[in-house]
Prior knowledge:
Layout: H1 22-37, H2 43-50, H3 54-58, H4 62-82, H5 84-103, H6 108-117, H7 122-135, H8 138-169, H9 173-193, H10 205-209, H11 212-216, H12 219-249, H13 254-261, H14 263-282, H15 284-307, H16 313-341, H17 346-371, H18 379-409
Helix pairs in contact: 1-7, 1-8, 1-9, 4-5, 4-6, 4-7, 4-17, 5-6, 5-7, 5-9, 7-8, 7-17, 8-13, 8-14, 8-16, 12-13, 12-15, 12-16, 12-17, 12-18, 14-15, 14-16, 15-16, 15-18, 16-17
Amino acid sequence: METSAPAxxxxxFLDRRTPPHVFTLILLAGLSALVMNIFLPSLPxxxxxxxxxxxxxxxxVPLYLLCSAIMQLFIGPISDNIxxxxxxxxxLIGFMLATLGCIxxxxxxxxxxxxIMQAVIxxxxxxxxxxxxxxxxQDQAASKIGYVTMGMALxxxxxxxxxxxxxxxxxxxxxxxxxxxxxxxILALVFWDMGETARPSRNTILGQFKEYPELLxxxxxxGYAMAAAFCSGAFFAYLGGAPFVGSEVFGLDPFxxxxxxGAPAVGxxxxxxxxxxxxxxxxxxxxxxxxxxxxxxxxxxSLLIFLTGYGSAETFFGMMTLIGxxxxxxxxxxxAGMLSVRPHLxxxxxxxxxxxxxxxxxxxxVLAGMLLxxxxxxxxxxxIMQITALAGVVSILFVIRRERSLALQA
Length: 410
């Protein structure tokens, strides 16, 4: 049964004795999004610089996502044990060192190695969610996560355009120097503003990992986790395939690719705004269901448009706003549901749920990159997105059915 948390925790900005301000959490979540996609318009230039193929450099997306998934398995339990603040600061420092490695990499192999190490910034996303669940009840946490990720949605909306603009006037390293500078500023903010929110644990770190089976036995946890994974899977497939579709299928230059690429973030911003407004009113299950349905609708309409011969850059990227809307409705609410199944394991649940979501996403990004060719056009990507969206609908319907069954047994 869910335990209650203080409805209105006392928070003072730049006071380490109180929990972090929502502004700090927005920046932490936003940094995770920035790192994922700001450099994508520069991938062709990076391939030329390192003397390798686009396909090799495109591995910087799925390899990063895969390592991010693995790291989240450890970040959550460790933060449950030693605290959110300490893990967050180590994560930011590690990310800055990895970014320097990317900048000074002598070849593509070394670059990809340090790019993988950049995935330590996953701690920013995991811990920003866990902090909110430390402070609020399930529906309140969903609303707060919605507002935090609404602010975060601004980053992927403008980051590809910024990256494309930087690529036009400077080389690809300038993008990574920007990441380094932003991370340094956020590290200083975390030091001065982020008080500890995790409840003291008597468990050792090894003991904390041994509590994973408690989550793995929960059917509701799996339902929420898979709903989030499948819904976001459409977006991760988009990350892996959209740069190719935009540049090779539709012939967009890096600047316009960056502009079009941010289309899902418009819907994502709107979905998170609606979550912030209505999560406490309608509950997380309804919000997740609506999000999965919006996600599926976007893929269906895009497929129908291409089948009727009207597919274009405008219609392809335009329909991605519905994919973003679905993610904005689904992910914060499914995350709040995951974290509330076992509230005392909020960090562990955040890490495991994130690992499932990101791990599946990395596989879909690889699959999209493998299947797309100039001959296939955008069809493989659209079909992958449609299948995963429909699987998300099935997952949340399972959760709703499970909760009704538990209510009848009570």
